[in-house]
């Protein structure tokens, strides 16, 4: 695969020219898969068959074929080693009972610590800056309890408009916990009139203008609805210049884009692991605390697992708090969730985020080109196309995901895609999110999807209008 000094379209055009074919020729997709250095990773995952997708219509399609799975932004696919690792722990439990806490590849008492270095590599952090614990929203609450200490002058939390609901609710409840007015203390940044995504200069302008009253800047890394990858480094630098703490919800960023949490001096971050990290529904979440805060930021709520390991079992009820993020741990790690995350992180650590990102840029760029070629043009006798991409066109400002806003009835299009074996998700009011994931998606998946989308649109176009 080529590196990207320019747009993925230029790379696609060059390869197509060498093959003597057009960019929308199936030959290009097959060749891109052939030269893909990461193609073997697909074999590490279970790819659902069309016949096993509950909403598929097997009367008109080949049900034994792999589905087109573009939903890694919602739930990643199952790594094949998950069952092996879970079976190992069940076997240990059955044979040695309580002794499993201190024996085996993943001693239960240290299960999270056995794999935390694998996670730290993915988020660009030091091992001691990362903990695996709880769920994302729980971790966000724990971190905000320590970082959000409003004063009369500095009491606002800044976040993007239409942040994911759990983030919005968490921020609102933290503000209310301090007896403050949410309308006055929650500061949100909206896109400009007629635009879908936020401009970096507008975010920085709000921080510069309002920064003296902002206690915490709390943004997404990648916006769940539009797929926009925010410039985390610039946002962090801007927040720090105004004396704000800066944290991120990385649910849609971790395992998707390159992150350098330590070098960017992000204050705190949290993430789930069941999307691009493929740990399974409700998987073990992660949290980051920069080492510069290890001796100044303390957890507001503490539990036994935040106590230093060397004296934890003295049972003296005299807290010796672990420094940094490890002091935020409250309970012992759920070992079966550790197993599923372990299986996925091992796959990630057989490559690099740089290599995955390189493939992702080309894969999503290929989807963008084909979508615009076939469906982005104006419909006959109409002023509108069938749909438009609302995700930023600049590949540096997005991850895997493209969000497609339809002018046709979006639910009808979504249902027709499901019938034909495409797994994606719909978000109101009118978008379908597609996320070709570099670990297990092929370029031919993109080619197949475009043909299926054409059939789906044709079907919806013929349906009687209400």
Automatic annotation (TrEMBL):
Tell me the route in metabolism or biology where this protein functions.
Cofactor biosynthesis; NAD(+) biosynthesis; quinolinate from L-kynurenine: step 2/3; Amino-acid degradation; L-kynurenine degradation; L-alanine and anthranilate from L-kynurenine: step 1/1
InterPro entries of this UniProt entry?
Kynureninase, PyrdxlP-dep_Trfase, PyrdxlP-dep_Trfase_major, PyrdxlP-dep_Trfase_small
Domain of life (superkingdom): Eukaryota
Q: What is its EC number?
A: 3.7.1.3
Look up keyword Cytoplasm and say if it applies: yes
- A GO molecular-function descriptor: pyridoxal phosphate binding
Q: Which GO terms describe its biological process?
A: 'de novo' NAD+ biosynthetic process from L-tryptophan; anthranilate metabolic process; L-kynurenine catabolic process; L-tryptophan catabolic process to kynurenine; quinolinate biosynthetic process
Pfam families associated with the record = KYNU_C
Q: Which cofactor does it need?
A: pyridoxal 5'-phosphate
Q: Which family does it belong to?
A: Belongs to the kynureninase family.
Q: What does this protein do?
A: Catalyzes the cleavage of L-kynurenine (L-Kyn) and L-3-hydroxykynurenine (L-3OHKyn) into anthranilic acid (AA) and 3-hydroxyanthranilic acid (3-OHAA), respectively. Has a preference for the L-3-hydroxy form. Also has cysteine-conjugate-beta-lyase activity.
Q: How does it assemble?
A: Homodimer.
Listed name of the protein: Kynureninase
């Amino acid at each position: 695969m080529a590196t990207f000094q320019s747009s993925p379209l230029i790379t696609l055009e060059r390869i197509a020219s060498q093959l003597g074919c057009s960019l929308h020729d199936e030959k290009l997709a097959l060749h891109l898969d052939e030269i893909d250095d990461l193609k073997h990773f697909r074999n590490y995952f279970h790819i659902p068959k069309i016949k096993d997708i509950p909403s598929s219509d097997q009367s008109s399609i080949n049900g034994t074929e792999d589905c087109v799975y573009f939903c890694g932004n919602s739930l990643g696919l199952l790594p094949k080693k998950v069952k092996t690792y879970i079976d190992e722990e069940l076997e240990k439990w059955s044979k040695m009972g309580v002794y499993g806490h201190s024996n085996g590849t993943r001693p239960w008492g240290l299960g999270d610590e056995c794999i935390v270095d694998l996670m730290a590599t993915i988020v660009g952090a030091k091992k001691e800056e990362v903990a695996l614990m709880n769920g994302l929203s729980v971790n966000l609450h724990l971190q905000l309890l320590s970082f959000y200490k409003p004063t009369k002058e500095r009491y606002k939390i800044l976040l993007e408009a239409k942040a994911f609901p759990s983030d919005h609710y968490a921020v609102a409840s933290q503000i209310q916990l301090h007896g403050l007015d949410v309308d006055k203390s929650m500061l949100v940044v909206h896109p400009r009139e007629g635009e879908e995504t936020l401009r970096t200069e507008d975010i920085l302008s709000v921080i510069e203008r309002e920064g003296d009253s902002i206690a915490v800047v709390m943004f997404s890394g990648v916006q769940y609805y539009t797929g926009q990858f925010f410039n985390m480094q610039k946002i962090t630098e801007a927040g720090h210049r105004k004396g704000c703490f800066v944290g991120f919800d990385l649910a849609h960023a971790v395992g998707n884009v390159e992150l350098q949490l330590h070098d960017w001096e992000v204050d705190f971050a949290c993430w789930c692991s069941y999307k691009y990290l493929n740990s399974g529904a409700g998987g073990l979440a992660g949290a980051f605390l920069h080492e510069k805060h290890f001796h100044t930021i303390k957890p507001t709520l503490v539990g036994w697992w935040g106590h230093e390991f060397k004296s934890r079992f003295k049972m003296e009820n005299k807290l010796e708090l672990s420094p940094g993020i490890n002091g935020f741990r409250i309970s012992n790690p759920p070992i079966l969730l550790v197993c599923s995350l372990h299986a996925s992180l091992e796959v990630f650590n057989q490559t690099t985020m740089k290599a995955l990102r390189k493939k992702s840029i080309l894969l999503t760029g290929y989807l963008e080109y084909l979508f615009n070629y076939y469906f982005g043009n104006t419909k006959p006798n109409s002023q509108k196309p069938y749909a438009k991409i609302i995700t930023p066109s600049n590949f540096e400002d997005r991850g895997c995901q493209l969000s497609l806003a339809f002018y046709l009835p979006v639910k009808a299009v979504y249902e027709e895609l499901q019938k034909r074996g495409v797994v994606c998700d719909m978000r109101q009011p009118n978008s379908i999110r597609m996320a070709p994931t570099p670990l297990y998606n092929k370029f031919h998946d993109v080619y197949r999807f475009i043909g299926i989308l054409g059939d789906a649109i044709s079907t919806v176009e013929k349906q009687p209008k209400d």
